[in-house]
Amino acid sequence: MVGELRRPSSANAAEVCTLELVTVPWFALVDGDGRVVRPGVPTDECRKPRRETLAALGSLPYQTVAERRIRPLRSPQAIDTGCPEEWKDIVAMDAEDLRPSRPRPVFDRLFDRLLVCTYRSSGKEHLPVGLFTSGREIRGEDLSDLLAALNAAGPARSCNRRHSAFAVLHPADGAEAYVEIDGCQRVLAPDRTLRQADAHLIDLVIAATDPGSAKLAPKRASWGGQAVEPL
């Protein structure tokens, strides 16, 4: 390892270089007297860390000296359901640039299970990210009912109401779809078109992650203890 760190950096500059950012993990050298040195890393013709040096660093054994828990990266519920703890609010980011679509299949392939994850918006307009609230994988009749309601959704209506919650529908294979649980209550299909959800579809999305809410009134659903009204 020390031999790799003593390599000189390349004096020549390459005419063409790739643009990816190559980072070096934080490390230091400690001698027998406890003195700590933070060495530089030799670079190649593109002024990036040499691959040989990075490989030598990666091959070193690691030993935990001390550890301190800061915060969990994922909640137990997110781990159990398979849903990410956070997800980009793509509808909030891209809705103005998307076009409505007539009723047709939302997904372009068949599958036997669908992971439904719901999120509440973080409220940060500069960083529209959803924070995980619930999730569940659905199959059989629940899946058939939800897909039928999705495929029947007509073109999205003009609307500028901001949603506070949304669902991400992850098929077993392929791109995901999005459903605004409140606000404009639109569906963003994988083909980047917008459909209009009705109260029945919103009920099915909520019931997908909260089976106890399956028997909802036909024109009202609950979300976080508040009523969600259809448009």
Biggest sheet architecture: 9 strands, mixed
Count up the domains.
Answer: 2
Order of helices and strands: HEEHHEHEEEHEEEEEHEE
The computed structural class is: alpha+beta
Cα gyration radius (Å): 25 Å
Question: What's the arrangement of secondary structure elements?
Answer:
Layout (H helix, E strand, L loop, with lengths): L1 H4 L23 E2 L5 E2 L13 H8 L17 H6 L4 E3 L1 H5 L4 E2 L12 E9 L7 E11 H12 L2 E2 L9 E7 L5 E4 L5 E3 L4 E4 L2 H11 L11 E3 L2 E3 L3
Parallel strand pairs: 4-11
Antiparallel strand pairs: 1-2, 3-6, 5-6, 5-8, 7-11, 8-9, 9-10, 10-11, 12-13
Structure commentary:
- The chain has six helices and 13 strands.
- By secondary structure, the chain is of the alpha+beta class.
- The protein folds into two domains: 68 residues, no CATH class; 136 residues, no CATH class.
- The strands form three sheets. Strands 3, 4, 5, 6, 7, 8, 9, 10 and 11 form a nine-stranded mixed beta sheet that branches. It has a two-stranded antiparallel sheet with strand order 1-2. A two-stranded antiparallel ribbon has the order 12-13.
- It is elongated and about 70 Å long.
- The termini are far apart.
